[in-house]
From TrEMBL:
GO terms for molecular function: growth factor activity. InterPro entries: FAD/NAD-bd_sf, OSGIN1/2. Transmembrane segments: none annotated. One of its GO terms (biological process) is negative regulation of cell growth. It comes from the Eukaryota. Residues 233-253 are annotated as: Disordered. This is Oxidative stress-induced growth inhibitor 2.
Amino acid sequence: MQQDTTGRQSYTPLREPALAQAVAMPLLEETTLPQEHPPTVPVVIIGNGPSGICLSYLLSGYKPYLDTATVHPNPILYRKLQETKHLPITEQDLEYLSEGLEGRSGNPVAVLFDTLLHPNADFGYEFPPVLQWRREKQHHIPHLVLGRATPGGAWHAMQGSMLTISLGIWMELPGVNYRDLTNGKRRDVTSDRATPEEISSYYRNYVKLKGLQKNFADNTYVTCVQKLCRGHEGEGLENGHTGQENGGVGDGGNEGFEGNGVECLNKGAGGALWEVRGYQQLQNDTHVPFSVFAENVVLATGASDSPVRLGVDGEDLPFVFHSISDLGLAIGQRKLDLKSDPILVVGAGLSAADAVLCACNSNIRVLHVFRKNVDDPDLIFKQLPKTLYPEYHKVYNMMCSQTYINVPPSSASNRPHTVSIASSVCAKMCPKPQLAAGNMAGNSSVGLFPDYTSFPEHCVVSFQSDMKCLIQGNNSLKAFKISMALVLIGTNPNLFFLKGHGQYLGQDPTKPVSCKQNPIDIHPYTFECTKEPGLFAMGPLVGDNFVRFLKGGALGIASCLLKRLKKKGKLISNGGNNFI
């Protein structure tokens, strides 16, 4: 750090030009205003995964127009598109275009954008997009994309040869064909799914191909987002902020920002400027703090920050894990093999299924515990076509056909049964399971893993330090000795940098934000938070967990900002960027 001519300490310039020029601001501890305010960025995007990348593309002047050489298979939508074919989709009425469309997302703009990019995809067709992209630099909106790693987000942390749920072409972003960057490879005639490595490489190369690098600041960690002013002079911070929450500065330093020359360009959406603070980690492990002002903030953080916990005793013991990568690490270090005690997998989603597959492929015994009945229509396996996802249907078949049967001790002394904790049970567990009556048998179990046992409608009661776990069924309590436990029951976003962890933004403000149970409440066509003007959310935070649909959030947000800034005459006429 160094001192400026006023004697205040200022930041050492950062390597990324985005932060080097836009983030030269006072120390976080200071409560006095600098004499000259730093430039205000129109948009700051928190998260550099596919959501943030796609939005950056649309904010960089790339405009989607109807490709007049194509015909959309939906005649009603096609007629609507023809009515204003001279206008980009971002300048049209998204509510009007979305009306009557149906799809696998609850957000209408997500369904609209998906059908424009992948017409009739849900019917198994691979029609070309009906959009063509034009670069109009005069419609460029300066913005910063802050991410903890290189562009691609959580995809860089995924490893192994497992395939994505979505087809590779559904993972692509506008303007760059996925197959063009993966040498057009197809594994077989029925599947075009991709590995995490292929997808992360695609996103990284996409940013370079589209010239978006200047908008991205990598290795940045956001620690606080708060409002600095509202559209009324002298009112200080909004939403109950005292300025001391989340490490914030005091009210005294921010009071009357408007009266001191900071113009709130976003008055039409609540009149507030936002301050985004955090630090950037450099190659030498140095943490350099930053602070940047923004007229609009977009939450694109995804949902993989915090694993959902069971909340039972012993969950913090060293053999209990919440990530499938820990299983891969244990296998790679040869800590698990066929002679090991079985692993316990908790959960009935795709992550749990991945763990089962990983263990089975390594000849490791598996106990699989989940709360739902195998016939529950909400099980994800019910929604996956067998031809595209044979490995997941193999797991589902085992969940159905290789269930644990609670047989009285007198008739099956060699089976684990209802007991108090006893070593005899732990020593004789996981033999070849008996097939439950009424479940799949015979040919359906051919090729399945014999040393796998499922426990439908069971839950974990506790983990104990002697590597035992207690599992409870409807009328029984069972004890098992295990080598490790994998609790894979979902993840939640970590919005610690917002007031109250952002809970007030949820559809139910009395509960934490959850991608499935309590997504952020947004306007359906702009993705602006209903409880916080100038704050937007997209992707898993609003219930769109698949890349195929999260792109709709980018369309809605870009359309809203372009219309809003155009109305105010704030678009960059020369296509330049004064902030980066």
